[in-house]
Amino acid sequence: SIELAPLVGLAERIVDLVQSGETLRVNGLVEVAEITRSTARVIVNRASMKTEHVRVSGVIEEMRRARRHPAPVSGRRGVEAAPGTPLQ
Fold this sequence. Notes:
By secondary structure, the protein is α+β, with helices and mostly antiparallel strands. The chain is built from four helices and three strands.
């Protein structure tokens, strides 16, 4: 996991996709900046949309249902070691 890089001396900082921040906390890391918000997109080629329309539409509908009950907003955030961890 990328969160281990600062702890083992491979990096002073990392960029990670963060949903809840729990993995950062478990690894003794703290957010220092939000770089940007991210979004997910479904991309389907035209042939698949024609030949697999029912299946593709089903997957898209499942995603829409999941979106109606979202998890915390994900975003890319810069992190650094928390005080008292190996990098401090």
